[in-house]
What we know:
Helix content is 60%, strand content 13%. By secondary structure, it is an alpha/beta fold. Residues 4-118 form the Response regulatory domain.
Amino acid sequence: MAVRVVIAEDEAIVRLDLKEILEEEGYEVVGETGRGDEAVELVRRERPDLAILDIKMPGADGLTAAREITGDRLAAVLILTAFSQRDLIEQARNAGALAYLVKPFQKSELLPAIDIALGRFKEMTALEEQVRNLEERLEVRKVVERAKGILMDDCGMAEHQAFTWIQQSAMNERVRMDVVARRVVDEGLRPETPAV
């Protein structure tokens, strides 16, 4: 599947050149604008893989647009601008840009910058997914531990018995262990016959 791109560049000729290069290389340009505020709307609507943003644009500058796009993890952002001042580069990095290219650019510079931005974005989203999974697993573990403690206190079960009962109940009901554990904690679910 072709990489989908939104271009936000206020110079129409640069925008046209950029679009032509991208399409020649097999990218799909799904939106283009000369305004920063429209760039954010386009990215939200079209869900591209990459947003190429100029810094100086009417409506909202590219840094503001980049902050919004990267804040919601909507797409990888590449800043393409005529400005190479260090402070702007740092601001772009802080706004979440994953690559920075100075105009006039060559195709031989643009394509690697795109690859780098897309690669970094993929790595970031994979890491965020791992963190979410770890957080979920930690939450499951916490609620199972809490439910075990309640069963041990209320029903006189040993720790391994409480765990086994939660596990067995989950298998019988075909639900995850945390579902049974939450019912123990929140709804007072207990074994029908207490452990001896």
